[in-house]
């Protein structure tokens, strides 16, 4: 019998998390995806299925000394873009990742940028 991969286990955790976390028009979902090199964030209204704002570390101008610093700058960028779209409060969807390191830094950056998590 083979052991499931780390990604398969993360996807399973994310599915369980999504049973409880859903975005609405007044409080959309801040979805986080983390790869080995980059981090991505989207503000999603699940009722209409629309992405209201997005930011990632692949964009120019969002850089830092470490990956944690880059995640904080992505959090600030997503907060700025979400506020421009009229969003002030979001629900954090950590994507099956631990609330630790880059995911935590992104959330703190979004809070600094003015989003209510």
The CATH level-2 architecture is identified as 2-Layer Sandwich
**Total of domains:** 1
Helix content: 25-40%
**Largest sheet, spatial ordering of strands:** 3-2-1-4
- Structural class, judged by helices and strands? alpha+beta
How does this structure look, described?
With 117 residues, this protein is α+β, with helices and mostly antiparallel strands. The chain has one domain: Nucleotidyltransferase, domain 5 (2-Layer Sandwich). It is built from three helices and four strands; from the N terminus they run αβββαβα. The longest helix is centred in the middle third of the chain and has 18 residues, at 67-84. The chain starts with 5 loop residues before the first helix and ends in a 5-residue tail after the last helix.
SSE layout and pairing:
Elements lengths: L5 H15 L8 E6 L4 E7 L4 E7 L10 H18 L6 E3 L8 H11 L5
Parallel strand pairs: 1-4
Antiparallel strand pairs: 1-2, 2-3
